[in-house]
Amino acid sequence: MDLNDLVVGAVVETKKKHPCGGSLWEIVGGGADRKIRCLTCGRYVVLSPDELKRRVRRMAEAKA
Ligand SMILES: [Zn+2]
Q1: d(CA 31, CA 64)
Q2: Domain extents for the chain?
Q3: pLDDT value for 8
Q4: Where does residue 12 rank: exposed (0-12), middle (13-18), buried (19+ CB within 10 A)?
Q5: How many whole angstroms from 22 Cα to the centroid of ligand 1?
Q6: Model pTM?
Q7: From ligand 1's centre to the CA of 21, what distance in Å?
């Protein structure tokens, strides 16, 4: 996974599911820490870019 792809607005699928059962996340914040929002339950999680890179399995199709 290229960090350059993990930009605000991108939707990604994580290797591990969120406790709510969802695995799709939208990246909502850039910078030193990346903020992502679970598309299933709407909760926010803040991760370092390296941690985000480790968790992402693939890019998902962006939602309109
Ligand atoms: Zn969730």
Answers
A1: 24
A2: 3-60
A3: 92
A4: buried
A5: 5
A6: 0.87
A7: 6
Question: Beta-carbon neighbour count of residue 38 at 10 Å?
Answer: 20
Distance 32 CA to ligand 1 centre (A): 23
Length of the chain: 64
Could you read off the pLDDT of 7-53 as tens digits, one per residue? 899 999 999 999 999 999 999 998 889 999 999 999 999 999 999 99
SS3 of the chain: CCHHHCCCCCEEEECCCCCCCCCEEEEEECCCCEEEEECCCCCEEEECHHHHHHHEEEEECCCC
